Amino acid sequence: MTHLRSTVGGSFCSCGACNSSPALSRRQFLCTTAATAVAAATVVGTASAQQPGATASGRAILIKGGCVLTLDRTIGDFEQADVLIESGKISAVRPNISAPNAEVIDGSHMIVMPGLIDTHRHMWQGILRNVLPDGSLDDYIATVQKTFGAKYTPDDVYAGDYFSALGAIDSGVTCVLDWSHIHNTPEHTDAAVKALSDSGARAVFGYGNAQTIDGRWWEAKGSKYPNDIARLRKQYFSSDDQLVTLYLAAPSGSPEQILPTFAAARDVGARITIHVGVGERGRVGLLEKLNAEKALKSDTTYIHCCTLNDTEWKLIRDTGGTISIAGYVETLMGHGNPPIQKAIDTGIRPSLSVDVETSVPNDFFQQMRTIFSLQKNEVWARRLAGDKNPPKFLTVREVLEFATIEGARANGLDRKIGTLTPGKDADIILLRTDRLNVMPMNNAVGAVVTSMGPQNVDTVLIAGKVMKRNGQLVGVDFGRLVRLGDEARDRLYSNANVKNVRL
Q1: DSSP assignments along 382-448, one per residue
Q2: For range 50-78, the mean pLDDT
Q3: What is the pLDDT of residue 503?
Q4: Nearby residues of 493 by Cβ (< 8 Å), 6 or more positions away
Q5: Which residue in 164, 167, 60, 197 sits closest to 468, CA to CA?
Q6: How far is 426 from 421, CA to CA, in rounded Å?
Q7: Cβ partners under 8 Å of residue 245, min gap 6
Q8: Treating both helix axes as pointing N-terminal to C-terminal, what angle do 154-170 and 478-495 enclose, rounded to 10 degrees?
Q9: Quick check: 107 and 64 in contact, CB under 8 A?
Q10: What is the pLDDT of residues 144-189, one digit of tens each?
Q11: Could you tell me the CA-to-CA distances from 249 to 120, 204, 304, 383, 402 in Å, in that order?
Q12: What is the reported pLDDT for 176?
């Protein structure tokens, strides 16, 4: 058995061979599976004839012979091993598993790892991709929220969420928090929930406010936010042990506007997510004011956090909150410097997020690279400025943990997903290593974080169901998808009285 040790925090795998030497061998770093000549992953069975995510007659699935990154520090990583999935859960991770009746997925020339986890994406904007590539935050509010968002129909919401969810799966994101502030009416809400369900994604539905032309969401006549969350809990989210779960997306504003939404969430046992510390708007000591009302608890994820003061950072840490950083959009739109080092200095390990596909690619590999390079640049700058005690550089493994297990924690799902741990749900991605952007392989974790992209995502499983195989989404009618997107976009532009100029 060739077993890779974990390289973070001094935690190693349990096999004696790994701990016998202080340095990893080149073979251990490679984590390749050259023992087989199969160049492309294939699935043995009849899953292709079934609906998205279906497996052949409920059979077990055996992922065979891949380089396995479990992201579980107690288990470690394997240069070559198998992953057995039974009843949608991971039942074993080790070399040479025998499962004669299982459907086999060939993992050779693949990295097998937990799916990527996004903790903040405005998925209703999936039909507005690239509409604002040069825009600032103020431009975004004026164009996307007040112009388009105020005119969204429920059908537009469905199309946006559906496109965004499928795009997430296609790029290796198996769980995404839908920060959904498009609830102009309850019909808009129902459309969003249906789209997430229809997509087959694991999603956290963050129920948010309405969009209006003047930005005064609390005056939206058709909206029932936040009290409609009680109906949602009863109608759609009666259990937390399902593929789509419930959060409340709290608005930015004054404590008087925010506190009732926190109360509505906690009345139904929903966790909370909120934007804070965004540009000059974030320099108001909001968290100090909320804390004075005893409103800060461990059930809350704080988005961006770029311009929070030191007291607010300590409040997040001391109350057990989690954070989500969207480094690409924060540098693009003027939110402030992404607070990667600040989070680490405070003792908080961040999760990562895409935020808005109106301006940012849905490529989660890009999010990892952005965070990695920004933190290193900050450390280098401090060194060049004469700092004699600069912070440590992030490692690629730490960044990969931000994108997986820390995302699971922020989404309230770390007991279920985020690592390849037996007993957890089988949210797994297989990444091709026989592509020119990464071959020849020298370092598995380094390849994922620094070189890979959606083109390397060969296979995606969510709760043990195959959603993507051989580089193609399973069961998706792309002709229908094109029509759905085009019709929704054209309808939205017409309703918003915006000329659709594509050049």
Answers
A1: HHHTT-SSPPPPPPHHHHHHHTTHHHHHHTT-TTTSSS--TTSB--EEEEESSSTTTPSPS-HHHHH
A2: 81
A3: 74
A4: 499, 500
A5: 167
A6: 9
A7: 203, 204, 205, 237, 412, 413
A8: 140
A9: yes
A10: 999 999 999 999 999 999 999 999 999 999 999 999 999 999 999 9
A11: 10, 11, 14, 39, 21
A12: 98
Q: Which two tokens stand for residue 13?
A: 């795998």
Does 397 score more than 60 pLDDT?
yes
What is the C-alpha to C-alpha distance for residues 196 and 163, in angstroms, rounded to an integer?
A: 10
* CA–CA separation, 286 and 278 (whole Å): 11
Q: What does residue 7 show for φ and ψ, rounded to 5 degrees?
A: -110, 15
| Average pLDDT value for residue range 271-289 | 97
120 token code pair: 């903040």
Write 294-300 long-range contacts (CB < 8 A, 24+). 295/255, 295/258, 295/259, 295/262, 296/321, 297/321, 299/265, 299/266, 299/271, 299/272, 299/412, 300/271, 300/272, 300/273, 300/274
Task: Round to whole Å and give the CA distance between 301 and 285.
Answer: 17
Residues 205, 215: Cα–Cα separation, whole Å: 22
**What is the Cα 311 distance to its own chain's centre?**
28
Alpha-carbon gap, residue 16 to 37, rounded angstroms: 30
First to last CA, the chain: 56
What DSSP letter does each residue of 259-298 carry, written as one string? Answer: HHHHHHHHHTT-EEEEEES-GGGG-S-HHHHHHHTT---T
Category of 470 on φ-ψ map: left (φ > 0), alpha (ψ -120 to 50) or beta: left
- Tell me how far apart the alpha carbons of residues 81 and 69 are, in angstroms, rounded to a whole number: 10
| Distance (Å, whole) CA 158 – CA 196 | 8
Question: Encoding tokens for residue 414?
Answer: 């770390």
pLDDT score of 450 more than 50: yes
Contact 78, 403 (CB under 8 A): no
- In whole angstroms, what is the distance from residue 397 CA to residue 408 CA? 16
Q: Are 218 and 257 in contact (CB under 8 A)?
A: yes
Rounded to whole angstroms, the Cα distance separating 370 from 86 reads 36
> What is the C-alpha separation between 460 and 470, in angstroms, rounded?
9
How many other CB atoms sit within 10 Å of the CB of residue 381? 11
With beta carbons less than 8 A apart as the criterion, state whether 68 and 420 touch. Answer: yes
User: How confident is the prediction for the chain on average, in pLDDT?
Assistant: 90
Q: What is the largest CA-CA distance in the chain?
A: 68
